[in-house]
Write a structure and sequence with these properties.
- The structure is a single chain.
- Helices cover 45% and strands 18% of the residues.
- By secondary structure, the chain is α/β, with parallel strands linked by helices.
- Strands 7-6-8-9 form a 4-stranded parallel β-sheet, with helices on both faces. It has a 3-stranded parallel β-sheet with strand order 2-1-3, with helices on both faces. Strands 10-13-14 form a 3-stranded antiparallel β-sheet, with helices on one face.
- The longest helix is centred in the N-terminal third of the chain and has 31 residues, at 2-32.
- The protein is globular, with a radius of gyration of 25 Å.
């Protein structure tokens, strides 16, 4: 009898020990499994020149994160799919990432229309979605989307005011402006406003006493710029405002050059930075917006970590044969978005989507390039902007506004 009891007890202990070992093995295995972040980027198509910047920045960020121990004690893996610069492909690809690939986390794509498409999927599945570059603040209503680049809740007023303040400081400020606008979401928003808010470049120009001599819209994907170039030449503005994305401004200016014309001043809203520098002397004086440029004075002011990030990005971009190897505003926005995501997960102590969202609303996120960010759902999580103006001078982008970030004064037209 006692022998049978002893044998039964031994069997129970063996089963319990086996179960404990199995549970520990499973826990160890889970700890080693990567946390998977899913996203799309425009690696081909019209936005590819900018998409590759976000890809390299993301790869660099994750390598640094994993080298420092990963996230929640686990390595991080990034699954990135090519949306081919096609907004109609973005939603289905994010559905695939969430429902089929079952990624733990997501991060947004590049370009406002693509971000809006991804946000709809994120909201449907309750996923937190930091993103790099969307500025169409009134439409970004999902409480758990978090912008890595903020121009405040009313970019349609802020951007033209920032630009007109900058050019008003020139000895001979422009009086006549021409506007070319992509009908893509964020660009059209800066020109036309949205809904009841009709403020934008033309209305604010008129308030400033500037004459709008041309105001033309064009479809995304336009490649033949001859007609618009002719209209700009005939309007003869002092300042061309190209509210566009990617390489559109390059195509416009090349078409004008074929007509023997060059605007005295040009502003390009959200360009791929390298191709404008590729214009050579014809690009000198072009203006755009920026949250960060790696001008030496800026890098020195921000400290050693920034220099390491900037230098590593350049090495990676060079190795991938990217024409423009500078860590600038697009890369900085990408870095911000990744830091928002990682801070949220660390703060929540898990990849639970609602916990991450709640933590970011309560505590914000610390970023290398834009400081501490706070997120208020009442203004769609758009934090106080750090945006400035940059200009191509002597073949390089330099910050010219605001004063505390400027490394050179703004320049007017040559001659």
């Amino acid at each position: 009898m006692r022998r049978r009891v002893r044998l039964a007890l031994a069997a129970v202990l063996l089963v319990a020990g086996t179960a404990a070992c199995s549970t520990k093995e499973q826990a160890d295995k889970t700890e080693q499994q990567p946390i998977v972040v899913g996203s799309t980027l425009s690696l081909t198509g019209a936005f590819a020149a900018t998409g590759i910047i976000h890809k390299i920045a993301g790869e660099e960020f994750i390598d640094r994160l994993n080298a420092s121990g990963g996230l929640l004690g686990r390595p991080v893996k990034w699954t990135v799919l090519d949306d081919q610069s096609d907004t109609t492909k973005v939603g289905p690809l994010y559905e695939q990432l969430i429902t089929q690939d079952k990624v733990d986390l997501i991060i947004g794509p590049y370009a406002t229309p693509n971000i809006l498409a991804a946000m709809a999927v994120a909201e449907r599945h309750g996923y937190v979605m930091p993103h790099h570059t969307a500025v169409l603040a009134p439409q970004l209503t999902y409480a758990c989307q978090f912008p890595g680049w903020s121009i405040g809740p009313t970019p349609n007023s802020f951007i033209p005011s920032l630009l007109f303040d900058a050019v008003a400081s020139l000895p001979n400020p422009p009086k006549r402006i021409a506007i070319l606008t992509s009908q893509s979401g964020s660009a059209a928003f800066v020109t036309d406003g949205l809904g009841a808010d009709k403020n934008g470049v033309p209305t604010i120009a008129t308030q400033r006493g500037l004459q709008v001599v041309l105001n033309e819209h064009y479809a995304p994907g336009t490649t033949d710029w001859t007609n618009l170039a002719t209209k700009v030449r005939n309007a003869n503005p002092d300042l061309l405002i190209s509210n566009s994305l990617g390489v559109d401004t390059v195509g416009q200016l090349n078409a004008m050059k074929q007509l023997g014309y060059r605007p005295p001043l040009t502003f390009s809203l959200f360009p791929a930075p390298g191709p404008l520098l590729g214009l050579g002397a014809d690009g000198n004086g072009i203006l755009s917006v920026s949250i960060f440029e790696p001008n030496k004075a800026n890098v020195d002011r921000m400290g050693g970590e920034v220099k390491v990030i900037v230098d590593d990005f350049k090495s990676r971009a060079t190795a991938q044969k990217v024409p423009y190897t500078v860590f600038e505003t697009q890369a900085a926005a990408s870095w911000n978005a990744w830091q928002i995501l990682i801070d949220g997960v660390k703060g929540a102590g898990s990849v639970n989507q609602q916990a991450v969202c709640d933590y970011l609303h309560a505590s914000g996120a610390d970023t290398t390039f834009s400081g501490h960010l706070t997120f208020d759902p009442k203004v769609n999580n758009f934090w106080p902007t750090t945006l400035g103006i940059k200009q191509i001078q002597n073949g390089d982008w330099v910050m010219v506004r605001p004063v505390d970030k400027a490394v050179a004064p703004i320049q007017g037209p040559a001659g």
